[in-house]
Amino acid sequence: MSSKEIQVLTPERIKFIAKTGEGHNVEFKIRIPAKAKDISQEICAFANSEGGYLLVGIDDHGIIKGADIDNSKRSAVQNAIRYISPAINVVIYSVDVDGKTVWVIDVPSGKDKPYVLLGVIYVRNGCNSQKLTTSDEIRSFFQNSNRIYFDAVPCLYFDINEELDKKNFKKFLLESSISSNISTQQILSNLQAIDESGIIKNGGVLFFGQQPEMFFPHAIVHCVRFKGTAKVHIIDDKKYGGPLYQQYIQAEAWIKDKLEVAYIIEGTGPRKEVWEIPLTVFKEAIINALSHRDYYERGAKTIIEVYDDRVEITNPGGLLTGIKKEFGKKSLTRNPLIFGLFTRMNLVEQVASGVPRMRDEMHEAGLPEPVFSTDGEFFSVKFIRPQKDDPVNLEDDPVNSENDPVNLEDDPVNLEDDPVNLEDDPVNLEDDPVNLEDDPVNLEDDPVNLENDPVNSEDDPVNLENDPVNSEDDTVNLEDDPVNSENDPVNLEDDPVNSEAIVYKLIIDKEGIPAPEISKLVKKSLTTTKRYLAKLRKSGKIEFRGSPKTGGYYLKQK
Q: Are residues 247 and 205 in the same domain?
């Protein structure tokens, strides 16, 4: 093949490729390897995929260093290529780029696949070349060797000038560190998103089109929130179209809206969000679903389902035969163009690392590993939500802690009939219109009632009005208080007068402690504990921070 029959790379295009980095169709080499046959593995892999360029004289960081290939090295490369069977016609030429020589090895997509190097089949997988080693991998390759990828098919009716989502395209260029000074047509050509005739491919439409669903109605994400744990009652139902990157952003935001989040405040810095399930796993799962789904299957969509106990993400298209036994270790994609575009946006950290990363994230969060279903015509992943031990519905009751052992149904205060707004007040007593002195709770039996308290008896030699322990404004150091001594024979747990002081001491010792934990430690009901907390808040000694469900009590900052 002569140079007239190929599209020779210009210096400008080589600089552009160097800046955008390696990909499905590009591999950098700083020099020809000592063993020239090593480079023939890359050539074999390109021939078994969509073709590509080996650029010699560029390092892994995209810096153009230049390279010198003398006649002996060139002959060694050509001899190594001869070990590939059937024979493939590869073109080698040099280009001067700002005074530095870059050698281009132009490999066409082979028409007689599979191509074998010394008895081994190599294929392109993301930015790497992969050797097929198992019979299943080889069988799968033979089954798909003549298949045209859905994302590589030209979309004849798409108008690039009118229907390209310019805002999304600029976002892609920004995230991919690609200069916007180059024409859109040239960028799409360099990304392999258009064919030789300038017609955009399906993958380009899905990634850059304003409304890809106008061309591919099935290429959307369907999000559903079910009540309970069965697929019966729907609470929320959303469908997201548009460019694939925007589908990812919208789907992730929808999931976040359905999950619980806690806020941790440390010092004066910004608050830290702690999600019930790490958001990283959803990023991985959604990107995988959009990249690897079978777009030839027009009767199914990518589906995200949220239940009370789990989150499931499902896409049409099961695992490719070649990686079923190597699931989580190797990766093959049905849509190399789409996968490559997500990779350029740095949304794919490393090929075949997504599944191990999801497992690690769930493990670090103390949650069960994700459950993968890889059989049949669909692929799905299930994430188990944290279990709630309390029978009360925590989604509707922000006061009730997940680990609160108190049975609110047996609590003398009827919270259902209490005019206090439980949703807005984490303590429920500070703004409660109910006067604690007139509270319908039986004050005769209430240990807080000081009139009947044996400690406050008229015959009691202790003058409570002058007692520093019982003062409303008292900030007595309980560690030095003889009444509160750890060795005092008086059982403070049974002394209602000192309970409020004990609660205050607990908060001093452990800031951020929630009401249910305080209730356990002082061995009082949750309602009684909240009364003490309300008094302490009114006196300005403590404050509540964080979300109603997961926050706690801190010393009031002055």
A: no
Average predicted confidence (pLDDT) for the chain: 78
More confident residue, 473 or 186: 186
Instruction: For residue 443, count CB atoms less than 10 angstroms from its CB and return exposed for 0-12, middle for 13-18, buried for 19 or more.
Output: middle
Going by pLDDT thresholds of 50, 70 and 90, the confidence category of residue 451 is very low
Looking at the structure, do residues 200 and 230 belong to the same domain, yes or no?
no
Q: Would you state the pLDDT for residue 7? A: 75
Residue 415 to residue 53: CA distance in whole angstroms: 71
Which backbone phi and psi does 144 adopt, to 5 degrees? Answer: -110, 5
**What's the number of domains the chain is made of?**
4
Angle between helices 279-292 and 244-258 (to 10 degrees): 140
Asked, for residue 155, whether it belongs to a domain, the answer is no
Q: Which two tokens stand for residue 150?
A: 């859905």
What pLDDT sits at residue 93?
Answer: 94
DSSP labels, 96-158 = EETTEEEEEEEEPPPSSPPPEETTEEEEEETTEEEE--SHHHHHHHHHHTTPPPGGGSB-TT-
Q: For the domain that residue 28 is a member of, what is the CATH number?
A: 3.30.950.30
For residues 88 and 78, the answer to whether their CB atoms sit within 8 Å is no
- Asked if residue 228 and residue 94 are part of one domain, the reply reads no
Q: Which residues contact 136 (CB under 8 A, 6 or more apart)?
A: 321, 322, 324, 325
Are residues 341 and 205 part of one domain?
Answer: no
Partners of 53 in beta bridges: 26, 106
pLDDT of amino acid 510: 87
Does 99 lie in the same domain as 192? Answer: no
Query: Are 97 and 64 within 8 A, CB to CB?
Result: yes
Q: Is residue 389 part of a domain?
A: no
User: Domain boundary residue among 369, 384, 399?
Assistant: 384
In this structure, are 447 and 334 located in the same domain? no
d(CA 498, CA 390) in angstroms, rounded, equals: 30
Residue 125 CB-density burial (10 A; 0-12 exposed, 13-18 middle, 19+ buried)? buried
User: 541 lies in a domain?
Assistant: yes
If one counts every other C-beta atom within 10 angstroms of the C-beta of residue 271, the result is 12
The per-residue b/e assignment along 366-405, b for 16 or more CB within 10 angstroms, e otherwise, is: ebeebebeeeeebbbbbbebeebebebebeebbbbbbebe
Q: Which domain holds residue 45?
A: 3-131
pTM (whole model) above 0.70: no
Work out the pLDDT band at 370, boundaries 50, 70, 90: very high
